[in-house]
Amino acid sequence: MGTKTTRIGDDAPEDPEDLLPERSVLSLEEYLDMQAAIANRTRFEIVYRLSHADELTPTELDAVMDVDDSTLHYHLNELRDVGLVEKRVRTERDRDGLYTYYRSTVLGDVILEHGLEELIRRERDFREAYDSSRDGD
């Protein structure tokens, strides 16, 4: 039986924890928690909509998403817990009687833009690079 040898490139640290800056604000586990949170379809859509709309109320989110109110609030809380979404509560009602607004944080915008959105945008490149039907055109 052969042995599997794993070689890390010269520019990549041996331990993934070493990717963090010397005085990182977040731990590797916290970054991984963010990645896991946005991997859920509903949470991805919430961050996507908030990132592209500045801020929305739960009522506005509910109007454009096909989820019930309790599910929406559960996912909003999950996203808040990992730092991808923030909640802003007004002290006075606005003209529609609404107090609570949500928006994507900088981390939410970055993980979306440079993570999943980038991967989706580059699908065409990946498909062409790995298309087995092409005979070295």
From TrEMBL:
Gene3D superfamilies: Winged helix-like DNA-binding domain superfamily/Winged helix DNA-binding domain. Residues 23-118 form the HTH arsR-type domain. The keyword ATP-binding does not apply. GO terms for molecular function: DNA binding; DNA-binding transcription factor activity. SMART domains: HTH_ARSR. SUPFAM superfamilies: Winged helix' DNA-binding domain. It comes from the Archaea. CDD domains: HTH_ARSR. It holds the Pfam family HTH_20. Keywords: DNA-binding, Transcription, Transcription regulation. InterPro entries: ArsR-like_HTH, HTH_ArsR_DNA-bd_dom, HTH_MetalResp_TranReg, WH-like_DNA-bd_sf, WH_DNA-bd_sf. This is Helix-turn-helix transcriptional regulator.
